[in-house]
Amino acid sequence: MEKINTDILIIGGGTGGTAAGIQAARRGINTTIVSEFSWLGGMLTTAGVSAPDGNELKSFQTGIWGDFLQEIQQKYLGNLNFSWVSMFSFNPQVAANIFHDWVRELPNLRWIQGQIPLEILKNNNRISEVRFADYTIKAKIIIDATELGDILALADIPHRWGWELQSEFQEISAPLSENELTTKYPLQSPTWVFLLEDYGESNLASEIPPPPNYNSQNYHNAWQGYGVDKFLNYGRLPGNLFMINWPKNGNDYGYQVERLLQTNHKKEEFLQEAFWYSQGFAHFIQQNLGRRYGLTDKVFPHIFPNPLGGGFAFHPYYRESRRLKGFEIITENDILPVSKGYVAKLSMTKEGNVSSIAIGNYPNDHHYAGIDYSLQLKSIPWGGRMVGTPFTIPYGSMITPAVENLLVCEKNISVSHIANGCTRLQPIVMNLGQAAGMAAALSIELNCQPFQLSIDTIQDALLTDKFAPAAIIPLFNLSPNHPQWLSWQRHYLENPEDYPLDGNCPIDRVSFTKNTTNISDSISDSISDSISDDISNKFYQGIFFKEDSRYTIQLTQPIDKVNQSWALVTLKGEVNQLFQTINSGVLLSIWGSCNFSGGWLVVESLEVINS
After folding, report:
1. Rounded distance, CA 277 to CA 370, Å?
2. What is the pTM of this model?
3. What is the DSSP string of 483-515?
């Protein structure tokens, strides 16, 4: 048994834990990550959900999340535009390699693999020591970054799990009383993701055997209403790969899901069933679409309980876990758009100060196998499609009065069951991890506990981090490379009453001359930079049309696409502003990338030719 002393111990190498470790170590603090698996990255890698949702707009691509996107875009020469469920799709092994490289660059970051926490020792209201199979680790600050909030259970820390009724937090989407759904699915359904490969018309993939107790009726009409191509392209990845994470009669599995939080035997029983359920879906797909499609053998390692090769993720994609009872709780009321607005209200302390340490914008989304659950709408039209209302996450949701030296940064933050449906996504959890890593590092530097930190100290450190500055305030029209980005972030922290309902700060606006588009120098420079950095952007020309908040173009160039009609979408605030001011019938030149799965052009820059 090796005994280790470290300043910061991060338990769990998932999306949040990886970001937390990198952030803390970049501050120069001795940090240790202990992970169960041989890859870092969690949802983005080991769970196989490498088509992430949320925080996709350029202005929200900040911090370590923004750096990750830039790094993985470089791996694919700028093009991640393969699927229609996400604006970014990639091989999870490529993402894991990026995280591995980042960790190796940090000499004060130790990564221990193949270990899970077994016992927590506490001294009064502090965690003093964590025991694993082969290690005993003492640390000043502990971060619970486990997929299911394991430390909350092991250390007997007050936490929630499952549903809350409408009476508890006055959430309009919560049930009025216990019912069949809340009993059958106390947690959201996990999904054991697998990757299919298109082996080509003339090749035969290996046969996918049916699992025990296979029942084809479980998957009947899985792609009805979508068609085969749209079903496969939902999670299309580079290299003729398809991520299968399909909610409609697919591989969501939630039968007696509460077993995940019971005994180890019950958990293993559930995991085996979930794996078999996904195997059954893979078998069903191959039986119906033919052996052109089969499990890929070149992504994931061959590990238990996977006897089928490299196509199955390490573990299920967990959407929900135990949830901390923190100083603050995020409820549905904190994530919905304000009246007549496009943003949620800023999270605030009782003293009237902004308590935000991270941002998100995913639409609220719940998974219960075979059931559609209606939630209050939190999507807004933006950039040619519907996107999630931006919201903020308060620091108080990551800390608890029960244990002084604990932070959390996964699905285990202090959040209601309903609101968890939009805080659980990969980019948001990565933002949470960066904030937790920063708070832990500052606690060591200032010789205090996380609850003693002033929130403005954490906010300023995140905004001015020399490696990956992270946004605290959601602003649609300010990318992180904009020269006014930091000043406007600070302005709204100091003057939250000025925060605009439309999420746009009053920087220089876009204007038009007769035949071309004039843009402020700062915006023009950022467009030029993005075009030169992204060699996947191509030139298109055609007639622009708009209907409500939807935009299309009937192409006149290139020649091979003449008269084709494509939807136009953008992730850039300045382009979104242009869309709103251009009239139908105008001839446009566009630079961007084509997404054949979604049927849209992602616009990076445009020019009005004539009006």
Report:
1. 14
2. 0.94
3. TTHHHHHHHHHH-GGG--TTS----PPPEE-SS
